[in-house]
Amino acid sequence: MIVPTGFALIGAANMLLLLFSMAHSYRVYGELYRSTVFFATNKNNILLLQILGVYLLLCCAVCFKGILLGELRIIERENLRKSMGDVFFDIFISFSIVRKEVTFLSLLFFLAAVLLGVVKGLMADRLELTEQRDILPRYFYHRAVLFFWTVGSACAFFLTANIPPRDSLFCFIFRSEVEALLLDTLQLFIRFAMSIVERKRPEWTAKSTVQIHLDVVFHLLRFFVHTKCLASFYRKRTMSLSLVKKCIVELKGTFDGAQSVRKFWQLLYQMRRKYPDATEAEIRESPTCLICRGEMETAKKLPCGHIFHFECIRMWIERQQFCPTCRAPIATRNVRAAPTQTEAAQGDTGEPEHIQLGGFAGGEPPDVLTEEQVERIVVRGVQAEGNTAQTEALRREVEELKGRVEELRRVIEEVKGVMEKEIEQLRRRVGELEKKDGVLTG
After folding, report:
1. Exposure check for the chain: N or C terminus, fewer CB within 10 A?
2. Which is it for strands 307-308 and 300-301: parallel, antiparallel or unpaired?
3. Domain presence at residue 355
4. What is the rounded CA–CA span in Å between residue 330 and residue 275?
């Protein structure tokens, strides 16, 4: 684990100043008791001791991070910078209201809870990465258990300890942060347990379904926690903008999650009851499921005409509500079916269509439209509506891909910079070794 040079220099400078102040106090008074009293009552020395306390807390956080996660990836470092910026912004906004109630010990407790939350975010990113691997090392499970035990014990201690005075604004903020951290850790623990069950039982396919419901539940619980703290602020005739922002974010997450769950069950109902099973001829024509790349014996047919395994398309619609092949909305009822290979080979053998959306070929429009003409106009309108929806879906997907490409470019540039620095260091090292070798052999 590599400690940043600036971080180590700050700690060394603080320790040197403290030692110099202790030596100066003893030299002036000559007695241990009198010099200790002077050292403990001097404002500059108290400030140095407080800086030392914060520094030791940061050292513990860095060591805890190193034990759990080891070396961070570039994307994890970028997420760490963003989360630290958001955390310190919330701290400054919150402490601007309760600055008169904050003591140094309560500030250390609050910073410890915040740093545990930052480590929790890094652990969530690492867990998401490990879910994509087939085999996990045994030490990862040990680290995960250590993390959950440490955070759970710390949250229990923070909630039972009476460090911030009861019925104070700072106590309300501190308890809401700790309760939110406990909920996040519990959600991460459930996700970790489901990942283990999925590895032990590969036939279990309900993980993502349970996860989208759990997201809604925990968003709602965090909203209640922040709302309770906000109500306590309101009783004290004050308000916190950071708490208002958190309440809005959690409420929006709850509504978005509930909307996703509703769409998921609606699409699942349509798939089971309204979407037909693929026939044997359609399965022979397209025998491979494009989601899992496996052979299909039974399949479901979407409105656009493409067929997939029922379980594959069920897990797909938990993330997206579009066809994996043509990007047509799955929930759209009137979508033109994709032509089969037989129909494509035969082509369109019917009579040419003379009716267009903008007018009629061959002169003035007739006074009365036949049933066939009305049906053709309706079909054209439905197809145009479906094409517009597909275009809009593709446009949104292109925008998302552009953002991902920009992020990958940024990561690649950072990797190039790091590699160039390492190459330059290796070149200097090789040059030094060549000089030493020349001296030894000369």
Report:
1. C
2. antiparallel
3. no
4. 10
| 36 Cβ contact list (under 8 Å, min separation 6) | 25
Residues 118 and 225 in one domain: yes
What pLDDT, on a 0 to 100 scale, did the predictor assign at position 357?
Answer: 40
Handedness of CA 37, 40, 41, 44 (dihedral sign): positive
And the tokens for 398?
């292109």
Give the count of domains, the chain: 3
pTM: 0.63
- Return the bridge partners of 442, or none: none
DSSP for 324-342, written as a single string? TTT--BTT-SS-PPPPPHH
Q: DSSP characters for 238-299?
A: ---HHHHHHHHHHHHHHHHHHHHHHHHHHHHHIIIIISPBPPHHHHHHS-B-TTT--B-SS-
End-to-end CA distance of the chain: 39
Query: 182 and 293: one domain?
Result: no
DSSP state of 237: T
pLDDT confidence band for 255 (50 / 70 / 90): very high
Q: What is the DSSP string of 183-233?
A: HHHHHHHHHHHHHHHHHH-TT---HHHHHHHHHHHHHHHHHHHHHHHHHHH
User: Which tens digits make up the pLDDT trace of 123-141?
Assistant: 888 887 777 776 777 777 8
Report the helix count and the strand count for the chain, using DSSP H and E.
Answer: 13, 4
Contact between 302 and 313 (Cβ < 8 Å)? yes
Give kind and range of the element (H or E) at residue 300.
strand 300-301
Find the domain containing 377 and state its range: 276-339+372-395
What whole-number distance in Å separates Cα of residue 97 and Cα of residue 88?
A: 15
Contact 173, 94 (CB under 8 A): yes
